[in-house]
Amino acid sequence: MPLIRFIDPSFTRHNPSTQGLVDVAVGLAARGWEVEVFACDLAPCLVGAVVHRKVPSIRLPFGWSVWLYFFYYHWHGLIDYFSKRPSADVTVSTGFMYLPADVATVHFSHLDYLKSIWRHGRKTHGVLRYVVLSLPGLLSELLFLWNPWRTHLLSVSESVAADMRRFSAPWKTVQVLPNPIHAERFSPAYREAMRVEARQSHGFHDEETVLLFSSAGHHFRKGFFPAVETVAQLRARGLAVRFLVVGGRHATTLARLRKQIRHTHPDFKDWMVITGLVSHPEFHFAAADALFFPSLSEAFSAVEIEAAALGLPLYLTAHHGSEMILRDGENGRILPWDITGMVDLLEQEIRGGTMRFHSGDTGRALSQQAY
Q: Which of 177, 305, 348, 356 has a CA between 20 and 30 Å from the CA of residue 331?
């Protein structure tokens, strides 16, 4: 049977870049394929079912870990070649992690991020720091798109695919493979069943409108600070609005965010709940009335898919991937990029009673089987 090799340091369901590939590995192993996963962390469901080629854990600040993994994988690729280790029939890499891969999944466009910072985020406090931090990602994207191998690129959204086609070398091929959704966990029925309990657990009252924001990190890119200011201004206009922030991989990051918010909004604890990392986000999402996600740049956000699957209306900026799921005026609204515009639109939606749950349509997101 064929041998397929997956390359990503964290091959788990918790990693948005590999959650769909985990199911692929499970399915191929069940069909008799030989599956090798070259990773540090392996999804528990794959233990014993695949060959786990262990990678050491590398932890560096500011995202530099990916570069050490990049060099580690390529060094071992050379060792495999010269030692005549059997090569895989198909090698699948996450992004630029292994340039000679046959297939690479594409979950972000650094070129779009820098463009969006310039257009919409350049007046944000501390923006220069985030521009500098994004430059290594831009370098990785140039390496990824202009290396000599004829890698087939699988982009999660039409807009990311358009960037890849526009900026990649002519010998690269591009196809759209949307992210999947775990429908058994995220559904309108689940939201309805858990809504009262979830709201009570956070102290939300029936008359309050709860806006949801969720992110494991990258809060500047995902529009966290404009979202905070928008909610504060909605409250200043007399609206009973609360802000639910789910996720946060590192406690130090959350402590820094709380410190930054306290400078401008000393009363933030009265109207904001920050959960930190949670094991069942669907429970916390069920407490919300809508997803509020004014991100500068995405690809096809798992948060948006999961919120939509629960039937939450989506309030999104026109970032990459929003075209895959948001139908303006039907399952949510496209937000303007400025804070005043966001406040005006959300006030109109709340006062007008048009912020409504929907049937749980997830747009172009795929089922696990289809993926």
A: 177
Q: How many residues does the chain have?
A: 371
130 neighbors 221 (Cβ within 8 angstroms): yes
pLDDT attached to residue 105: 97
Q: d(Cα 183, Cα 300) in Å, to the nearest integer?
A: 17
Q: Which amino acid is at 351?
A: R
Q: Which helix (H) or strand (E) holds 276?
A: strand 272-276
pLDDT (tens digit per residue) in 282-308: 999 999 999 999 999 999 999 999 999
For 240-270, the DSSP string reads -EEEEEEB-S-HHHHHHHHHHHHHH-TTGGG
Radius of gyration of the chain (CA): 21
pLDDT at 62 exceeding the cut of 80: no
Q: Copy the structure tokens of residue 330.
A: 């039907």
pTM over 0.85: yes
Residue 17 CA to chain centroid, in angstroms?
8
Distance CA 360, CA 313 (A): 9
Backbone angles phi, psi at 253, to 5 degrees: -65, -45
Arithmetic mean of pLDDT, 184-203: 96
pLDDT band at residue 248 under the 50/70/90 scheme: confident
